[in-house]
Write a structure and sequence with these properties.
3 helices; 185 residues; single chain; 6-stranded mixed beta sheet; globular; 5-stranded antiparallel beta sheet
């Protein structure tokens, strides 16, 4: 297991992204189109839309790059999985009239800061986990210097593509977003 990031991530509008190259974040309906989970939108190739409970401020966040699926951990209240494909360097790849020429993958926080994720071209399974989403939603805004109240984990490992799924859902916030996802057809 390789932990490639552990720290705080700035979010706004309850969102962060994983993006390929200079790709811009996809729109919400595009990111979740055809999915059953509403926390990790993976419908746009080369991008992930990540939903948080907190509207504005910093959340705790980890990113792991693994060789195989990790065991499920009961510390997480919400767990979803999606497939994510990093296009081959010779493959034409375009989104919203933006041609992607660089295959750099980054976790992108609100305001443009990015954290590199060292994965190469190929197919991956991604597990997105959350804890404290309802606390974050109720708090809404966390000011600089205040203790973090919601936490997230993102893990990547090589795997063939398969449909997204909800593995665990306990919060009202996650239930709301899962209910929204199928409406983006």
């Amino acid at each position: 297991m390789a932990r490639v990031f552990s720290g705080s991530l700035h979010v706004h509008y309850s969102q962060a992204y994983v993006l390929t190259g200079e790709m811009i974040n996809p729109g919400l309906p595009d990111a979740f189109r055809g999915q059953t989970n509403g926390l990790c939108g993976a419908a746009v190739r080369g991008a992930l839309w990540l939903v948080t409970g907190l509207h504005t401020g910093s959340v705790g966040f980890t990113v792991d790059v693994l060789d195989a699926a990790p065991p499920l951990d009961d510390v997480w209240e919400e767990i979803v999985e999606v497939s994510f494909t990093v296009p081959d360097k010779d493959e034409e790849f375009e989104y919203d009239d933006v041609e992607i020429t660089e295959r750099r993958i980054s976790l992108v926080e609100w305001g443009g800061g990015d954290i590199p994720i060292p994965i190469s071209s190929g197919s991956y399974r991604v597990r997105y986990c959350a804890r404290g989403m309802d606390l974050g939603r109720r708090r809404d805004t966390l000011l600089s210097g205040e203790d973090l109240i919601d936490f997230y984990s993102l893990a990547f490992w090589p795997a063939e593509p398969e449909p997204d799924c909800v593995i665990k859902q306990t919060s009202e916030t996650a239930a709301y977003w899962h209910k929204c996802a199928p409406s983006y057809r």
